[in-house]
Amino acid sequence: MEIYTDAQYVCNVIMAIQKSSCMPLHHKMSSFDLVKRLCSCWDENKHKIIKVKAHRTLQEASNTEDMWQILGNSCADMAASSAITRESPEVLQAAKQADDFSKQERQKMMAVFRFLIDLNLQQMKCLQENQQSNLLHLHSVDGSVPSKISGSMSVCEPFNLAKCRFCHMMRP
Prior knowledge:
The protein is mainly alpha-helical. The protein is 52% helix and 9% strand.
């Protein structure tokens, strides 16, 4: 049986089913109840999924088979649109509420992510400022504390050394 679809998600699910006899993580996928049922009955020796491009016109057809795929996809789209218009108002309202809730949750999650990114950037900025003020411990090559920075200086980096070899100062 050949199944034609313009849905990349469906093709991806079928490929995942074919790669592993039955996906152990199908419960984490969208529409997991349908994926579970599909997983239990899919037989790659009997079934074949064929991806067709969506929203094409007959003028774009390259051959007769391509034309039939365009017509079939168009009919399937019209049938789906017609089915939605015949759905009960309660189901349509529930679907709209679920969609609105999902969008609101996504906006909230994005705000949390933005906060965490900003927090991380501030932490990095504080660490850089702290490193600039505390990390560089300059010494002259002979170990004396220099009066100014020159080419004969050695830099002690506290995070890399437990103890400065010149002044024997202990590091945090």
